[in-house]
Structure formats: structure tokens, C-alpha cells
Write a structure and sequence with these properties.
Blueprint (H helix, E strand, L loop, with lengths): L5 H7 L10 H26 L2 H10 L5 H17 L4 H21 L4 H5 L1 H16 L3 H4 L5
Helix pairs in contact: 2-4, 2-7, 4-5, 5-7
Length: 145
Amino acid sequence: MTTFSPQEFIDAVPAENTPRRSRFAIVGIVISVLVGAFLIFDVVGKLTRPEAVVEGMAKLGFPIDQAAVMGIVLLICVVAYAIPRTAVLGALGITAYLGGAVTANMRIEAPLFSTTLFAVYFGVFMWIGLVLRRPELLKVAGIRR
């Protein structure tokens, strides 16, 4: 049986001023990880070019050679999004990328709510995750004082 000295017990209990992650921050991290995983899946598809990506690029009117460029740009944005210090910059880059997806789908007159606006839904989900991770962003946006 293991016994603890009183000092070991005190050291194991977090002090009142020890920063702890709130539930909102944890939910934000989970959302951000899900967003990042989905986007990495997109990057891998663009860089490996399976048949579904080749067909999708053709349907949207993009030459297949542009898939690699799109994949690299998205990878850079996702890496920036994953680093806490550059997360906002990464989120802005991903938002621009998703705006291009909306435009490409509008051009081919894809279904509005299921296909074209999916990038918008995804972008909102991404920003919710970031704001939950960094609530001070609400002050920057003028939503909270």
C-alpha cells in the first residue's frame, strides 16, 4: 500500500490561482481537432489524387494540376490554425479557402443548402471552435466588452 506525505498531497491539489481549462475551452479544442482532421483528410486527397478527387476537380472545372497547389495552401493554413499563436491567421486563410469552395460550387449551380453552403457551415463551426478556445476574440470582434 502506498502512502503519501502531507506535502505530496498538497502538491497534487491544484492551487486556486492555477489556470485550468474551462469546459468551453475543452469543447473548443475538440471542435478544432475535428475541423483540423477533416481538412487534413482534404489535403491528403488533393495531394494523392484518388479518382474521386480527379472527378470532383473536373466537375468543378479545375485542372487536376491545381489540386497540389490547393492542397499545399490548405496544409499551410491548417498548420497555422493548429498553432495557438497563429490560429487566427490560419482561420482567416481557411475562411478564404472555404470562400473559394462556395464560389466554385455556385459556378456549377450545385444544390445550395446541401453542397454550396456546406463550406459556410463548416467555417462557422471552425470559428466557434476558435472562439471557445480563445474567448478574447469576442472583444476584438466587438461582440463583448
